[in-house]
Write a structure and sequence with these properties.
- The chain is built from three helices and five strands, in the order H-E-E-E-H-E-H-E.
- It has helices spanning 7-19, 62-75, 88-93, and strands at 24-33, 43-47, 52-54, 79-84, 100-107.
- The chain has a five-stranded antiparallel beta sheet with strand order 3-2-1-5-4, sandwiched between helices.
- A hairpin with a 4-residue loop joins strand 2 and strand 3.
- The longest helix has 14 residues, at 62-75.
- It is globular and about 40 Å long.
- The two termini are 23 Å apart.
Amino acid sequence: MSETLNHDRVLEEAARWVGEGRKVALATVIETWGSAPRPVGSQLAIRDDATFVGSVSGGCIEGDVVTRALDALETGKPEVVEYGVSDAMAWEVGLACGGRIRVMVEPVTG
């Protein structure tokens, strides 16, 4: 399941999953420079089975963010990840828009 939802709907879906007893992580764009695919505040909610809703990049880095979110659910530790066109990782995950973004990935604790 992957769909772009507005901010409130992403949080509502995350809350619903938590209410169902699922482990959930949130990824939030916390900073952008240059041509960034999504604005600061954009969010992605990721469930423990890799189901996700929302968007932090319009699709170009979501796969990597989901993997990092699943890791965060295992470790319980948040992480800030930076993606940019000058980084090898950015090309690997498809962020070739010319900008940079920083994303906070954190497990939701109830």
